[in-house]
Each structure stands twice: as C-alpha cells, then as structure tokens.
C-alpha cells in the first residue's frame, strides 16, 4: 500500500491557528505604532505652539510683570490651552518665561513645555 503524502487536517488547523495569532499580533503592533505616531505629531504641534507663544511676546516687545497667565489659542484648526509662568531673573532687564501647552479638554496634562527669556527694550517699561 502506498503512503499518501500531504498534511493531516490537524496539522493544517494548527498551522492556521499559528498564522491567526501572528496576524493578530501584527495588527496590534501596527495599531500601537499608529497611535504613537499620532501622539508624537500632537506633541510636536504643541511644541510649535509653545515656541509661538514666546515668539509672540518677543515680537510684541512686551516685558510682562512676574506672575502666571493662562489662555487659549487656535492654530491650524487646533485649539490649545496654555499657561505662562513669568518670573524675574538676577538681571532686572530679563524675565524668564515658561510656557506650557496643555492637552485639550479637562485636566492638566502637559504636552509641551519651553523656557525662554525676554529682554526689556532700551527706554521701555513693563
């Protein structure tokens, strides 16, 4: 009697189960990578907004008094919440500015934080 070649039904089912598990893991990894990329893009945009906040103060040649400020801004259709912490430095002609960009919605999740310095303009006041 001639022995038949090929796979048994059991071997085929085991192979299909292994492939199904591998594909499931691959899909999960792809989903996590997409979520991570979206989060990185959001943090990058928040970083740009923090830089914009400091650049705006510099462009307006403002020399704000020490203290805390908060507000909202809209950039490229995205609404951002920001906080600015302005503090004196040992040199009275400079102010330290810490800008934090918060995640939209409730809570206090900081997406980006940048520190910059403002210089008092010659002949200018606060």
Could you give a quick summary of the protein structure above?
It is built from one helix and four strands, in the order αββββ. It is of the alpha+beta class. The protein has a four-stranded antiparallel beta sheet, with helices on one face.
Rounded average pLDDT: 89
Distance between the termini: 102 Å
Number of helical segments with 4 or more residues: 1
User: Which CATH first-tier class would you pick?
Assistant: Alpha Beta
Low-pLDDT segments: none
What is the total domain count? 1
Account of the protein in words:
Type II secretion is composed of four main components: the outer membrane complex, the inner membrane complex, the cytoplasmic secretion ATPase and the periplasm-spanning pseudopilus. Component of the type II secretion system required for the energy-dependent secretion of extracellular factors such as proteases and toxins from the periplasm. This is Type II secretion system protein I. Residues 40-118 form the Type II secretion system protein GspI C-terminal domain. Belongs to the GSP I family. The chain has 126 residues and is α+β, with helices and mostly antiparallel strands. The protein has one domain (9-119): Pantoate--beta-alanine Ligase, Chain: A,domain 2 (2-Layer Sandwich). Helix content is 40%, strand content 31%. The protein contains one helix and four strands, in the order αββββ. Strands 1-2-3-4 form a four-stranded antiparallel β-sheet, covered by helices on one side. The radius of gyration is 28 Å and the shape is rod-shaped.
